[in-house]
Design brief:
The complex is a heterodimer of chains A (236) and B (245).
Chain A (H helix, E strand, L loop, with lengths): L8 H10 L2 E2 L7 E2 L2 H36 L3 H13 L2 H12 L3 H25 L3 H9 L4 H32 L11 H5 L1 H34 L2 H4 L4
Antiparallel strand pairs in A: 1-2
Helix pairs in contact in A: 1-9, 2-5, 2-7, 3-5, 4-5, 5-7, 6-7, 7-9
Chain B lengths: L3 H7 L1 H12 L13 H7 L4 H31 L4 H13 L2 H7 L1 H4 L3 H25 L3 H9 L4 H31 L23 H29 L9
Helix pairs in contact in B: 4-8, 4-10, 5-8, 8-10, 9-10, 10-11
The chains are: A mainly alpha (236), B mainly alpha (245).
């Protein structure tokens, strides 16, 4: 019952990413290759970007506002905690059988997975901004929206970006099982074993892992760029 | 079905499940029913084995993850320069999506429970390690000085002063780790490791009632473990109020 792939399969998987090859399950048909890999990689990024954009649009303004007002901690933090308990497989499976397949159904559902960390971190980040700083901003005549935009958000950037990074990785990871709901992604290589074979399976895993690390790294760089120099001074 | 991977992927629970579902006539056109109460009543016992399997993945993963992360944190607490590289290393493990991680391990550990346990415990390292270090670093220097002044050795300071004071942060980390591990363990079905994921996805998606019940059990399990840890924290730190996870 337990199938052990030989270690050499890594070589086969890497070959699969770059050049089409006969799969061990399709009897002669050539699958994989660089073009197919890139096509699925771009689709994977597309799904992730759309879902992340929806999550940001919903959760970021709400989290910033709640944090600014110091209200709704239960909602923001509670949702953040509860969100972690939701099994992604159930979410994708349910949307596929109840709502329907396709990007228009799956993207909003993936977005839901991204909302808790963004909301939670935006709330925590903003509400932890020193109230004296906010009072000073109010004292020099800044409007409430200006305070959020120019004072609280810049100070809270590391925390806010932390939430966005978690959301991005959660969405990207779950997009791997999106093919179960009829949305193409790198998960195709993994889910459709009877098309792509064992090399495809491993190739998909390698690509998804590299993509996640790349996105995480890029967002970490972006976070550094966005963080004001004043905040980078080490306070021991 | 000549491919061992495909056969294995269906798994024992999944295979039987699909067969029985096809002949079930409790709710005709089940896909249209969001929740079929009759089926749920009749079939609740089929979730028993998957629940046990789920626990058999989650508990070892958490124990291993905790022991390794805790040991790494103690090591990095002594040897300070290890802190950033260990944080980066555990961060990489945390970033790799678990589905990808499962399959990356196939050539090394094969299908089944062991692989699931390894992946899930690797996944918990970052959260537990980071929070343990955070907790230890948050201990006020004055408290450590006082302990030293009372004649405690370094070892005594660590076990009797620093670690007890770090309990809230350590448990906050454990709570996050426990809850996400229980949720992610559903994906273990993809590498034939069983668990509640088998009731959501066999070799095909199952139907809503089964998915909802399985998801509910997962979330209840997460809630129960979370409450248990909160209780442990209350009991072990009578001098402090709970710190939100």
């Amino acid at each position: 019952m337990i199938a052990h792939l030989p270690l050499a399969s890594f070589a086969g998987a890497i070959e699969f990413i770059f050049s089409p090859q006969e799969s061990n399950v399709t009897g002669g048909k050539e699958v994989g290759g660089f073009d197919k890999s890139m096509e699925l990689l771009i689709k994977h990024l597309e799904v992730t970007a759309i879902a992340l954009a929806i999550a940001l649009l919903v959760a970021l303004p709400l989290g910033l506002y709640l944090g600014h007002r110091g209200k709704g901690e239960q909602l923001a933090v509670g949702l953040g905690n509860a969100g972690r308990a939701v099994p992604e497989l159930a979410v994708i499976a349910l949307v596929a059988v109840l709502v329907g397949v396709g990007l228009q159904n799956v993207a909003p559902v993936l977005a839901i997975l991204g909302i808790p960390p963004i909301l939670n971190n935006a709330y925590v980040g903003v509400s932890q901004v020193d109230r004296a700083t906010v009072d000073a901003a109010r004292g020099i005549g800044m409007s409430e929206t200006a305070i959020i935009r120019k004072v609280e958000l810049p100070i809270a950037i590391p925390t806010v970006m932390g939430g966005i990074r978690s959301a991005a990785i959660a969405i990207l990871a779950t997009a791997t099982i999106a093919p179960l709901a009829g949305v193409e992604s790198l998960g195709d290589f993994i889910i459709n074993r009877n098309v792509y074979g064992e090399n495809g399976l491993l190739a998909g895993a390698i690509l998804v892992a590299l993509l996640a690390l790349t996105i995480e790294g890029s967002l970490a760089l972006l976070q550094r760029r966005l963080t004001s120099d004043g905040l980078k001074v080490k306070t021991a | 079905m000549g491919n061992p991977l495909v056969i294995a992927a269906v798994g024992e629970v999944g295979e039987g499940f699909i067969k029985e579902r096809d002949v079930g006539d409790l709710c005709q056109a089940q896909a249209q029913h969001v929740f079929c109460l009759d089926w749920a009543r009749e079939n609740l016992d089929r979730f028993e084995t998957p629940t046990v399997q789920h626990l058999q993945i989650v508990i070892p993963a958490l124990v291993i993850g905790f022991v390794v992360a805790f040991a790494l944190a103690l090591l990095a607490h002594r040897i300070r320069w290890l802190q950033p590289p260990l944080l980066a290393a555990t961060g990489i493990l945390y970033t790799i999506p678990s589905i990808a991680f499962f399959f990356l391990l196939l050539p090394l550990t094969g299908l089944g429970r062991d692989t699931a346990i390894i992946v899930l415990s690797a996944y918990t390292l970052q959260i537990i390690y980071r929070n343990t270090i955070l907790g230890l670093n948050n201990v006020p220097a004055a408290v450590k000085d006082a302990a030293r002044g009372m004649g405690l050795t370094n070892r005594q300071i660590l076990w009797k002063v620093e670690l007890p004071l770090a309990i809230p942060e350590i448990i906050a980390g454990l709570r996050v780790a426990v809850v996400s591990t229980i949720a992610i363990a559903t994906l273990a079905v993809l590498i034939s490791a069983g668990g509640l994921g088998t009731q959501m996805y066999g070799s095909n998606l199952t139907f809503p009632t089964s998915i909802i019940i399985a998801a509910a059990i997962v979330m209840l399990m997460a809630l129960a473990f979370d409450a248990l840890l909160l209780l442990v924290q209350r009991l072990t730190t009578p001098w402090r109020r709970a710190v939100p996870a």
